[in-house]
């Protein structure tokens, strides 16, 4: 998505730079950004979401933004596309983020958030859930086992670019972007095809959220803006939103990217980011210490 709202962009910049989110005690430490490769497929120009595979070590899943086909791509850590998965039954209105998680039934799922709404006019937004595909390098597949969930906000339409799945409580979170503070909404995905009203649960202390992820063990959460990332360690006995609203996040300086919207944890606890744009650089932030 090309950002047109310069005033909102400026607001996000101010919040990202001046809001005191740092929790100096026991914050995780990461290396400076390390360029580990570039996204090598020149046809992928609007990478909006990234998540680490649960089934294939070292593999990442990415997708594009609005106007692209309903497709996810399996890539290596240095940016080589190794498989393409299409979702024939899905639509790609404005895909903004992707999440992963092992649900209480023991299955590994991917969740794709068709949650973007630049004009604030969508009656409902959509999340697609599919069992994480098992890939063979070089083999492109179509995934038919896709469930569709329709979500509506309890108040008004919002533009959102962050989707989180909490494996501890089997809950999905949508986090808005251009409100005065990024608002958090949650839902329990019930019956596919039905429309569920999201529950507003609180605000982050900044706006401009462009992506996020929950670690595989469900104990860490990262949210990014165009300029920085913030990490929370959560109490797994409490709903995820309580940690984000009630605790201070730990600041992580990100690389300067043209339009950075995608971030994820790796299985090793590192961070990975990639920007929109043609052949963008992929950055890794190595976890150093708790």
Question: Quick gist of this model?
Answer:
This protein is mainly beta.
Description:
The model is unreliable at 2-24 (pLDDT under 50). 7% of the residues lie in helices and 42% in strands. The protein is mainly beta. The strands form six sheets. The chain has a five-stranded mixed beta sheet, with no helix packed on it. A five-stranded mixed beta sheet has the order 7-8-9-11-15, with no helix packed on it. The protein has a four-stranded antiparallel beta sheet with strand order 2-23-22-21, with no helix packed on it. It has a single domain (6-289), classed as Neuraminidase. It contains two helices and 24 strands. The chain starts with 5 loop residues before the first helix and ends with a strand. The chain has helices at 6-18, 240-246, and strands at 29-30, 34-38, 47-52, 60-64, 71-75, 81-86, 95-102, 108-114, 125-131, 141-142, 147-152, 160-166, 171-176, 183-187, 195-197, 199-203, 211-214, 220-224, 228-233, 250-253, 260-265, 271-275, 281-285, 287-289. A hairpin with a 5-residue loop joins strand 22 (271-275) and strand 23.
Number of strands: 24
Beta-strand content estimate = 35-45%
Q: Quick one: biggest sheet?
A: 5 strands, mixed
What is the CATH top level name?
A: Mainly Beta
Strand order of the largest sheet: 3-4-5-6-10
The poorly predicted ranges are 2-24
């Amino acid at each position: 998505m090309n950002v047109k709202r310069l005033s909102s962009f400026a607001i996000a910049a101010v919040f990202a730079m001046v809001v005191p989110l740092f929790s100096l005690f026991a914050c995780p430490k990461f290396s400076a950004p390390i360029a580990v490769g570039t996204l090598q497929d020149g046809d992928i120009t609007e990478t909006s979401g990234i998540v680490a595979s649960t089934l294939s070590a070292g593999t990442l899943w990415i997708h594009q933004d609005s106007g692209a086909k309903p497709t996810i791509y399996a890539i290596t850590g240095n940016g080589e596309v190794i498989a393409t998965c299409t979702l024939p039954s899905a639509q790609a209105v404005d895909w903004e983020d992707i999440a992963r998680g092992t649900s209480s039934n023991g299955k590994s799922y991917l969740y794709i958030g068709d949650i973007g709404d630049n004009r604030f006019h969508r009656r409902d937004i959509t999340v697609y859930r599919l069992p994480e595909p098992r890939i063979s390098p070089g083999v492109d597949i179509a995934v038919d086992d896709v469930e569709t969930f329709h979500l509506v906000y309890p108040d008004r339409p919002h533009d959102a670019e962050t989707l989180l799945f909490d494996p501890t409580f089997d809950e999905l979170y949508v986090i808005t972007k251009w409100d005065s503070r990024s608002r958090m909404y949650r839902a329990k995905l019930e019956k596919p095809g039905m429309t569920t009203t999201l529950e507003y649960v609180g605000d982050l202390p900044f706006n401009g959220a462009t992506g996020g992820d929950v670690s595989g063990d469900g104990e860490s959460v990262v949210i990014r803006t165009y300029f920085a990332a913030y990490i929370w360690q959560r109490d797994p006995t409490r709903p995820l939103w309580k940690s984000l609203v009630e605790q201070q996040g730990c600041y992580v300086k990100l690389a300067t990217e043209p339009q950075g919207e995608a971030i994820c944890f790796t299985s090793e606890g590192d961070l990975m980011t990639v920007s929109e744009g043609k052949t963008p650089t992929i950055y890794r932030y190595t976890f150093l210490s708790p």
